[in-house]
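User: Assemble these into one structure.

Assistant: Restating your components, then the assembled model:
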Amino acid sequence: DAGVTQSPTHLIKTRGQQVTLRCSPKSGHDTVSWYQQALGQGPQFIFQYYEEEERQRGNFPDRFSGHQFPNYSSELNVNALLLGDSALYLCASSLPPGDEQFFGPGTRLTVL
Amino acid sequence: GENVEQHPSTLSVQEGDSAVIKCTYSDSASNYFPWYKQELGKRPQLIIDIRSNVGEKKDQRIAVTLNKTAKHFSLHITETQPEDSAVYFCAASRNRDDKIIFGKGTRLHILP
């Protein structure tokens, strides 16, 4: 049973570019949440997708957008990249109601 | 807004001694308090959690306590071992599959 997977593992972009990160949830899970973890900090909630709709959103600008596909996989898109967007981006999946969120290995994004 | 404060940021203890990490939260609607362990370059791993209707929970060498009135919760690790060295995050959430608000983390060093 595969756990949560994310791609790519590492990514280097330059300021102003756009990036797409991908997440496949744990088998049987239909809810995907995205978190940003800056170096030396705790993860910060970006948004959560359920039934292909954004259900909740944290305090992130509109440059951060997402999508969930019918197979429950999800994408995180970031436009107009800033140096401060450099971080580990974690995806977590769960099965409501009340299931634990399982984290993927993350995508390390570096913005130069 | 929702916030979780965590102390200390760094903690060094002799192998075999106990370690205590303390957190406070601001959202009165929080009902679920997970603790995560994150090793360098790895994903956060849930090590123990507690719900608001429980004051204390223990799992082998790890215990958590919750004081909902004071909005305090703590992690206690007894008989520490070298493999306990990692960054630990406390967190709060309204439900298990809801957005998770993380503390900034405690880097735990187990000294030989």
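The first strand of chain A starts at residue 5 and ends at 7.
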